[in-house]
Structure prediction request, 336 residues.
Amino acid sequence: MRSLEIHGIDDLRVVDRDDPAPGPGEVQIAVEWGGICGSDLAYWRRGVSGTAVMSHPFVLGHEVSGRVSALGAGVSGPGVGSPVTVHPARTTGPLPERLRGRENLHPDLTYLGSAAGDPHTDGAFAQTITVRADQVVPLPAGLDTRRAVLAEPLGVAMHAVTRAGDLTGAHVLVSGCGPVGLLVVLAARDAGAARISAVDLSSPARERALALGADEALESAADMSEEITVAFEASGAPASLDGILRHIARASVVVQVGNLPPTPISVTLGPIVSQELEYRGTYRFASEIEDATRLLARTPRAEQVITHVLDLEDAHAAFTTAATDPASSKVVLRLS
Prediction:
């Protein structure tokens, strides 16, 4: 099988590997689609994603979909040929009681395509992968495998919305209209938000936000309405966060979705005190990926998040497009 390894900064290699056979309790999947995530780009551009530092080659990718190709011993389904996506997290041991319901914060967790541990965890940008049966998420009727490649990032967006609290009737802001920000627009609307304002410096990104259901698209948070009471910072840019904290209304909630740099940053924090703001973090997701597949099945316009599809052999061009093309959003690799 062909798989995509990263060997260093700007060093992607499509290599041949043996097809992995499913062991007991495992499922083999023929991967059809793989979405390039910001963490994949970070390893490619800097060799670091968040606090995870790459020290040896490994396979990238954690946003994938495809079809079951074989079942290991003791696995009863879904059957061979079933369309599925994958929950990238794998945990070992019990979850501490104080973290009940927050499996994404499990102290012993590995994630597909991550350099957080040593050895690193190979990802899913490969024509064939094996995962534990409990990581396999069957697709609902009406959802094809191409759109389903968005399930993992939509799970991230839905978890961020959960962290914000009840959005029923709220006017919310989404700052940063990359793929996750666009999916936050979808998730917020599904959660009952009455009005959604999107913010991005890029005109194509603002246009996509409107197509995905935002009511207005702004260039700056300085123009935000005083009626906004919940904001999602989805760019990871300190200047974006600073603008939100400076201009959002009193007693509002700010959810940090985008990854901030692992170094000190300059942000005006005074309003957290003087305006009694609630600043909340959000990290990956717990079980929201199953809800994400259902939302994708009933939301065909989610397909508009995908702007480019390239073959695995064109991985370098795909990564370059995702990193540098202002007209790009989610760039997807065709693996089958």
Remarks:
- The chain has a mean pLDDT of 96.
- The chain has two domains: 2-138+299-334, 154-281.
- The first strand starts at residue 2 and ends at 8.
